[in-house]
Write a structure and sequence with these properties.
This protein is an alpha/beta fold. It is 26% helix and 28% strand. The protein contains twelve helices and 16 strands. Strand 9, helix 4 and strand 10 form a beta-alpha-beta unit. Helix 3 packs across helix 4 and helix 3 crosses helix 10. It is globular and about 60 Å long.
Length: 329
């Protein structure tokens, strides 16, 4: 089978399409014939520490496909079943997935849409529902709202009855997101949105901030938070890893600051979030009220072009790779 591998140094990464034998599923695993997978920016950013320098690693973090083999101890899943889920080495013709991560695909989804859900929407469920405790009628600020996580956060927040402010450097993208329910779009890439946010919220500030950008906007995120506001840090694409914290605001407004990352979690801890997502968000996806926004689909052998499109920030939502059903082993 073909699969993509990435080797990193301290400053750069090299991606190769290689050949390997089809793996066998171990206990509590299933083997998928992959049909689609989606890109996640954090996996390709060397500074995020997801790859050890000098070590080659199979890449890809989420995808969808058909189960072709089942390991010992797996129950509730069948050969031929269409599933989606998070899995290491997803950029491959075949990939192993922990059975606890496998989610039955809603019938209304394409392969590419299904492949764009697991990582992104489970992260969004974590920061909006599990940690963010978002309530109907509350205000949410999503920095970098045009990203895959940003669009998903917008969709889930609107499904939960919240009002959403989004920032992006592209007015065109903000205008397009109005069709998904974006209440207020702010065209900016810097931490200069305090006045606009306070005006939109009647001077109260936002109840939940989703910061996908990083340290360059962190201080402004704290500044716009309402009493008992919550701030989720989910990425730092700006590469800025430090910021000042207004201790007085943290204290007086009883703020909550939390991170959203799976880097240090065990496989069991990661899988523990799947049932909540299935219960709280998947019904809206199956009913068509939430549908993953796919910017562009590339053939499997064009990962380099897909990554270039992502690196150029031309996309709105997710970028997917597609594998035809006839791909040989």
């Amino acid at each position: 089978m073909k699969f993509y591998s990435m080797q990193t140094t301290a400053t750069e990464a090299t991606i190769e399409l290689l050949e390997a034998a089809i793996p066998e599923p171990g206990a509590q695993q299933v083997l998928l014939r992959m049909r689609a997978m989606s890109l996640n920016r954090g996996e390709f950013i060397v500074g995020h520490g997801l790859h050890k320098p000098g070590v080659a690693k199979a890449i890809g973090m989420e995808g969808a496909g058909e189960i072709v083999a089942i390991g010992a101890g797996v129950t509730g899943l069948t050969i031929g079943q269409r599933v989606m889920g998070r899995c290491g080495g997803a950029f491959a013709e075949y990939a192993l997935m922990d059975a606890a991560e496998a989610i039955a695909m809603p019938a209304n989804l394409t392969w590419e849409e299904a492949a764009s859900i697991p990582m992104t929407f489970i992260v969004v469920h974590d920061m909006l529902v599990v940690q963010g405790k978002l309530a109907p009628g509350e205000w949410v600020l999503v920095n970098g709202v045009a990203s895959g996580v940003g669009v998903a956060a917008l969709q889930v927040a609107k499904e939960m009855g919240a009002r959403v402010i989004g920032t992006s450097g592209s007015q065109e993208k903000l205008d397009r997101l109005k069709t998904l329910g974006l209440d207020v779009g702010l065209c900016t890439r810097t931490g200069d949105f305090y006045e606009a946010v306070m005006q939109a919220t009647g001077g109260k500030g936002v109840n939940l901030v989703v910061n996908t950008v990083g340290g360059s906007v962190f201080a402004e995120c704290v500044r716009v938070m309402a009493f008992e506001g919550r701030l989720a840090t989910v990425g730092y694409v700006d590469g800025v890893l430090e910021s000042k914290i207004d201790i007085q605001a943290l204290h007086v407004k009883r703020l909550t600051l939390f991170g959203v990352s799976n880097k240090m979690r065990s496989a069991g801890q990661r899988a523990a979030g799947v049932p909540g997502f299935v219960a709280d968000v998947l019904p809206a996806i199956a009913a068509g009220r939430i549908r993953p926004l796919i910017d562009r689909i590339y053939p499997f052998d064009q990962l380099a072009a897909a990554k270039e499109h992502m690196d150029a920030n031309r996309h709105l939502g997710k970028i997917a790779l597609s594998l035809p059903a006839t791909t040989a082993a």
